[in-house]
């Protein structure tokens, strides 16, 4: 089969920083599958061709990018010189490259001329040339790289432009020499006026290694203490599992371990994850210290402690009123007087115990609050978790009431269902896990029916107590739920990716910001769930 | 070479189509909508301020007037920067890709670039929009797994909504360039 040579369009990607450079030769990469040339830099006169070839060979070895001389660039301030153009054509014979690209710009003219020299083509045709300007810095920094670790067939489907981005990104070594370096080769590229670096970034990089080591050592000590046998005994381990503060502290410890590990991030995802955790920790601690400075000013802790006892008293009074209401004729329903009185008196005694306990603790509350407030410097999330735990502890009696009411109701329902089966002459077969018919004795039937009737008529009373205490418990759970929602939000929002997207979106060009939209979606869903939780409670208040 | 023709949009508003041919394989097509009219701007502003003055007369609170001024200003800025699209253009470069640009009245430009390898075809489709059936031009993107499948449909000229006669002009220009890539084999391999 013969070669099909047709008028294929030639694409030349030219860096915008080289448009004002002096005459020289163009070096870069020729991608033959796409018929495109990516110009990376301009090498100025005078140069020795052997040294240029050596330099290119070194760059090729280091970056694994096939860099070669692509053509010539002439930027003449005066009229076009004939000798210069011949000289540039002769260069094409020294650095043999097919095709030899010649770009020239005259004086202040806006128009450039771009031509191709094809020496070995059989039928030379007029090829159309497309010149694309690109901003080298942004192309290098944007992470539009083809996936290197997928199977071979996928690499062909990868977008063609990503090969261009990849070429520029991998030639970072080429951009490290600037014009102040004493070398045989003088290049012009985006960093040729001086390599870009930030003192702060360099200092941070130097300081980060010993800081990481110190942090790792401290963290290993801490985790050793946490894992010791002393803390695993039954009452303590139960307590740790119930307190959300300990859970949050453990979570943060894990995060710190991820950041302070000595291994560099393998790929982009891990790097972003580390950066997100770091920014989240920083913001957390900053907000916590802000909260602490606000709390400890003007004796706010004392004010808080002073209002705590009256609030607890007020809640207890409200509960007592509620129980008195239930013991009477709540909402016009007629309750069983005896059971009502028993349950009501039982719960009232409970509240009385609780109030005396709170009053016992009242002189120490301010001191406890003061010391606990100090832990806010570990982060706003820790402070919020402590708040949630304090709410749980203060409403412990509501939790107890809920448990009693639920147990009673549960027993009653089980009893009722089993006696209902007896009433109909059936029995629950545990082996076969189904309902079987059974013949009972007369005395069994008699007692069973009696008990069934008693339980049935006592049902409204227990059900009402159960309903009221479940709603109260739901209220407390909602408050705790909101606090935990905020804590989870601070923990998991990828702030670094979001800020990067807003400020320097080219750095996240090809990447799927899969974490950020997912986090935002999760946030919206959580808000919706919250609204659905809260509205029944609000309706209850208004109704 | 550039030429400009006047057409009507789907809503009856006059729009202008400008075609420029930069080279044999590069075309630029721009649809320009009407500018913000002074009379509609004054009508909206007067309506808002009359309503604010009525509220002020009822409530005797001067904050209503300052709030109305703020709302008008901020509303105008938001409208110019995020809503009002002046010009939508399509730049087709054979063998490189298609670039779709929307320029807003405040000068903001939002650009999308689609590589030629991902473009399957440019077609005119029908759609039901509110109570009308309108024609729109769209780019069909290739599904990487299935060579016959379409992975995505990118509609063009969504805010100016030109009618069929304008769309046919744009369609013909695009197809001239897209056909070139079919007659040119993708590489110079020796088979």
Account of the 3D structure:
Chain A: This is Phosphatidylinositol glycan anchor biosynthesis class Q. Chain A: It comes from Taeniopygia guttata. Chain A: Keywords: Membrane, Signal, Transmembrane, Transmembrane helix. Chain A: InterPro entries: PigQ/GPI1. Chain A: The chain crosses the membrane at residues 207-226, 277-296, 342-361, 368-395, 401-423, 444-468, 474-500, 512-534. The complex is a heterodimer of chains A (543) and B (191). Chain A contains 16 helices and 10 strands. Chain A has 543 residues and is α/β, with parallel strands linked by helices. Chain A has 2 domains: 9-192, Cytidine Deaminase, domain 2; 298-496, no CATH class. In chain A, the strands form 2 sheets. In chain A, strands 1, 2, 3, 4, 5, 6, 7 and 8 form an 8-stranded mixed β-sheet that branches. In chain A, α8 runs antiparallel to α12. Chain A is elongated. Mean pLDDT of chain A is 80; it is low at 1-6, 149-155, 510-519 and 536-543. Chain B is of the alpha+beta class and 191 residues long. Chain B folds into 2 domains: 2-36 and 84-183, PH-domain like (Roll), CATH 2.30.29; 38-82, no CATH class. A 6-stranded antiparallel β-sheet of chain B has the order 1-2-3-4-5-6. In chain B, strands 7-8-9 form a 3-stranded antiparallel β-sheet, with helices on one face. In chain B, α1 runs antiparallel to α2 (63-83). The longest helix of chain B has 22 residues, at 38-59. The chains are: A alpha/beta (543), B alpha+beta (191).
């Amino acid at each position: 089969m013969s070669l099909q040579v047709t008028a294929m369009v030639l694409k030349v990607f030219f860096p915008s920083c080289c448009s004002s450079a002096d005459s020289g030769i163009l070096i870069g990469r020729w991608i033959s599958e796409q018929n495109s040339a990516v110009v990376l830099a301009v090498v100025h006169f005078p140069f020795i061709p052997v040294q240029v070839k050596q330099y290119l060979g070194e760059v090729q070895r280091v970056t694994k990018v096939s860099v070669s001389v692509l053509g010539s660039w002439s930027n003449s301030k005066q009229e076009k010189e004939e000798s210069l153009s011949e000289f540039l054509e002769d260069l094409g014979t020294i650095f043999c490259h097919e095709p030899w690209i010649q770009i020239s710009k005259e004086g202040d003219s806006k128009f450039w001329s771009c031509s191709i020299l094809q020496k070995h083509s059989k039928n030379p045709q007029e090829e159309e040339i497309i010149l694309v300007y690109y901003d080298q810095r942004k192309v290098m920094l944007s992470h539009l790289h083809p996936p290197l670790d997928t199977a071979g067939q996928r690499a062909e489907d990868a977008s063609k432009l990503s090969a261009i981005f990849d070429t520029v990104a991998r030639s970072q070594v080429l951009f490290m020499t600037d014009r102040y370096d004493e070398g045989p080769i003088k290049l012009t590229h985006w960093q040729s006026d001086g390599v870009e670096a930030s003192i702060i970034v360099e200092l941070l990089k130097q300081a980060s290694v010993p800081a990481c080591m110190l942090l790792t050592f401290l963290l290993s000590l801490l985790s050793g203490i946490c894992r010791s046998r002393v803390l695993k005994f039954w009452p303590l381990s139960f307590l740790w599992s119930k307190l959300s503060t300990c859970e949050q502290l453990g979570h943060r410890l894990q995060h710190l371990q991820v950041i302070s590990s000595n291994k560099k991030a393998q790929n982009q995802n891990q790097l972003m994850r580390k950066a997100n955790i770091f920014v989240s920790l920083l913001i957390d601690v900053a907000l916590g210290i802000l909260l602490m400075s606000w709390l400890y000013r003007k004796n706010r802790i004392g004010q808080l402690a002073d209002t705590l006892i009256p609030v607890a008293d007020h809640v207890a009074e409200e509960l007592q009123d509620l129980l008195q209401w239930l013991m009477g004729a709540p909402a016009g329903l007629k309750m069983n007087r005896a059971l009502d009185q028993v349950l009501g008196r039982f719960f009232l005694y409970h509240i009385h115990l609780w109030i005396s306990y709170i009053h016992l603790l009242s002189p120490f509350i301010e001191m406890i609050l003061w010391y606990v407030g100090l832990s806010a410097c570990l982060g706003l999330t820790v402070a919020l978790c402590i708040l949630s735990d304090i709410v749980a502890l203060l409403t412990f009696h509501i939790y107890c009431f809920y448990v009693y009411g639920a147990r009673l109701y549960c027993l009653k329902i089980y009893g009722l269902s089993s006696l209902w089966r007896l009433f109909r002459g059936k029995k629950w077969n545990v082996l076969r896990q189904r309902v079987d018919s059974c013949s009972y004795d007369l005395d069994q039937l008699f007692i069973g029916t009696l008990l069934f009737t008693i339980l049935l008529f006592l049902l409204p009373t227990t059900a009402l107590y159960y309903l009221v205490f479940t709603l109260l418990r739901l209220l407390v759970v909602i408050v705790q739920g909101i606090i935990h929602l905020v804590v989870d939000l601070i923990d998991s929002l990828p702030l670094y990716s979001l800020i990067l997207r807003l400020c320097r979106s080219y750095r996240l060009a090809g990447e799927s910001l899969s974490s950020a939209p997912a986090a935002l979606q999760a946030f919206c869903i959580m808000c919706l769930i919250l609204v659905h939780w809260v509205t029944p409670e609000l309706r209850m208040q208004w109704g | 070479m550039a030429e400009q023709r006047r057409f009507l949009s789907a809503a009856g508003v006059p729009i202008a189509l400008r075609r420029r041919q930069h080279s044999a394989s590069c075309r630029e097509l721009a649809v320009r909508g009407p500018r913000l009219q002074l009379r509609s701007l004054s009508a909206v502003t007067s309506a808002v301020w009359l309503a604010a003055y009525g509220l002020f007369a009822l409530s005797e609170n001067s904050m209503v007037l300052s709030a109305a001024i703020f709302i008008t200003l901020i509303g105008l800025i938001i409208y110019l920067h995020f809503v009002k699209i002046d010009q939508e253009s399509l730049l087709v470069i054979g063998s490189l890709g298609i670039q779709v640009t929307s320029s807003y009245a405040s000068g903001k430009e939002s650009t999308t670039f689609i590589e030629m390898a991902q473009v399957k075809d440019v077609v005119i489709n029908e759609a039901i929009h509110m109570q009308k059936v309108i024609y729109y031009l769209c780019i069909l993107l290739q599904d990487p797994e299935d060579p016959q499948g379409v992975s995505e449909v990118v509609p063009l000229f969504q805010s100016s909504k030109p009618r069929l006669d304008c769309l046919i002009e744009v369609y013909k220009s695009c197809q001239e360039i897209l056909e070139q890539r079919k007659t040119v084999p993708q590489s110079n391999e020796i088979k």
